[in-house]
Design a protein that fits this description.
Helix content: 25-40%
Strand content: 5-15%
Largest sheet: 3 strands, antiparallel
Order of helices and strands: HHEHEHHEEE
Number of strands: 5
């Protein structure tokens, strides 16, 4: 069990990503103990640990699984909240040769079908589709229907300010 998501052994490729996240989870506990234990200095927040090497192509789905914690990254109306599919943001054949986690997002079946049926301009503006020639890692993505993020090449995401520019800019 990880973050409320049952991982039944089929996702062994995601284990290193989940262990890196779990290593960071110990820091808040240490800070809470320092706050209630007099005389102990406050600890600085632990830095995020990013993978040191690029994600191998066979690990792309695992990187998306780890980033999404097994949940849909769209969360549109009627969402099932599950990771049913990996959806590609890039349509060009050239982009398919050098895939990275920034090119992909997790979606439930309902949201994946909704994204496929969206007006192309709206899908681009929300970051679900990336125009040919643009770097997906630099195109904002409307993540979980609530905030703008950049999906990073290493499988992580970076939150942007709320008035982030759309993917169409």
């Amino acid at each position: 069990m990880w973050a409320g998501v049952w991982i039944d052994g089929r996702h062994s490729a995601a284990v290193p990503y989940l262990q890196a996240i779990a290593a960071n989870d110990a820091a808040p506990i240490d800070r809470a103990l320092a706050a209630i234990t007099p005389g102990r200095p406050r600890l600085a927040p632990a830095p995020l640990r990013r993978p040191s090497a690029p994600v191998p192509p066979r690990m792309l789905a695992a990187a998306v699984l780890a980033r999404s914690c097994g949940n849909c990254e769209v969360l549109a109306q009627g969402c099932r909240y599950t990771f049913d599919r990996v959806v590609c943001r890039c349509g060009s054949e050239a982009a398919r040769e050098n895939r990275c986690p920034a090119d992909l997002f997790a979606a439930c079946a309902v949201c994946a079908e909704m994204v496929e049926g969206l007006d192309p301009q709206l899908a681009t503006r929300l970051g679900y589709v990336v125009d040919t020639g643009r770097d997906p890692a630099s195109v904002p993505f409307h993540w979980r229907g609530s905030r703008w993020v950049l999906l990073e090449r290493d499988g992580w995401l970076t939150e942007m300010r709320q008035d982030a520019p759309s993917g169409a800019t």
